[in-house]
Write a structure and sequence with these properties.
The chain is an alpha/beta fold and 364 residues long. The protein folds into three domains: 3-65 and 87-154 and 237-305, FAD/NAD(P)-binding domain (3-Layer(bba) Sandwich); 156-232, Alpha-Beta Plaits (2-Layer Sandwich), CATH 3.30.70; 309-363, no CATH class. It contains ten helices and 19 strands. The strands form four sheets. A seven-stranded mixed beta sheet has the order 6-5-14-15-16-13-17, sandwiched between helices. Helix 1 (11-19) runs parallel beside helix 3 (93-104), helix 2 packs across helix 6 (267-281) and helix 8 (309-324) crosses helix 9. Bound molecules: flavin-adenine dinucleotide.
Amino acid sequence: MSRVGVIGGGPAGLLVASLTRDHEVVVFEEHPRVGLPRHCTSLVGRYTASFLSELLTSRVVGRGYKRFIFHTSLGDYTIEFGDEIAFYLRRPLLEEKLAEKAQSLGHVVLTGARAKPGGLTTVRVGEGTYAFDKIVVADGARSEFYTFFHGGRRGLLYGVQAFVGHDSGDDAIHVDLSPRKAFFSWFLPLDGDVGIAGYITGRHLADPRIMLRSLSKRMRVPFKKVFRFFGGVVVEPGFISRPHIGGRVFFIGDALGLIKPFTYGGLYYIVRLAPKLVEAIGGKPETYVKEVEKLASFNRAESILASTKTQRLLSPVFLKLVNSSGLFNYMDYDEHYKLAVKSIISPLLLYPSLVKSIAEGLGK
Ligand SMILES: Cc1cc2nc3c(=O)[nH]c(=O)nc-3n(C[C@H](O)[C@H](O)[C@H](O)COP(=O)(O)OP(=O)(O)OC[C@H]3O[C@@H](n4cnc5c(N)ncnc54)[C@H](O)[C@@H]3O)c2cc1C
């Protein structure tokens, strides 16, 4: 049995603790409560929602969405999927349930405990020093432990959002792919007449109220009231850390840096990687490295797809095509590389005669 120190009581650190059975775990969380302050929109695909619902309780999963409206400078694209493909996770209930689960396994979750790196086997908290056999670094996008072990800092982007009142009666998620001063922005209706509106930007100085007004106009969703702003930073896609150091220190979540390049979501990777990290703690670091490398290589390919504005703008066109051709599968929400392949195949299915005549034309 090993003693494992987990730095950070966010989804990544708490999920690792909740899945670890044969070792003693201590989670250090600097805030007085887990899950707060909140920074994430909490939209995930079916894989992540089902995984967490089965592990914890179905209550952590809120409403699902099957209709998306993409606003682009080429026009608006409404896409309705046959089934719900994205789900809202209730926060901070998610972190609270994960912490309860970890504690029910005998692990300790120390809140109000800011950890400082000591070395490969030690963590400093206040005046004290804790010794561990393994350390799991899950201290988020600004990871101090990443800087300590790897040196340097990663590029960060700013996610700004607000709970807003609306009376659109809308059940669709709106995504604006061509906002000014932001990479993309979104509106997500929650239960009742409240929703979350937000944007990802590299320029955190843009006035959030002006940004919200402009995105409300572009998405044609009037916001009656802005209740509360919240948000945080995301790691710029592409800055992936080494998954472990000497089989002793492991990185996961935003500290690892795997982020979806189209949506900036990180929760899917956490759910995929936490079970492998638990195996790695048990002495098989290579299984973790393999999984990180697999996800990272697809992630890099997706980053290339997402890297130019034109490709981003065209993505709803391809998405619509894939959905109409019947090739869409719920895993495509998280695995965009599959969408890229399917978007090449879709026209063959949808317009066989057109493809045939092009092929004949090329053959002449
Ligand atoms: C605006 C915004 C919207 C997002 N929307 C989505 C979304 O819709 N879907 C999705 O999948 N992802 C989304 N993300 C990304 C997602 O929030 C992250 O990928 C996820 O929170 C990463 O979890 P984590 O546990 O690695 O880090 P965090 O959630 O950042 O948790 C890290 C924890 O460590 C604690 N901590 C940090 N340093 C220390 C220390 N030294 N000692 C002790 N504790 C420490 C922090 O207090 C925090 O609780 C969004 C992010 C932002 C900013």
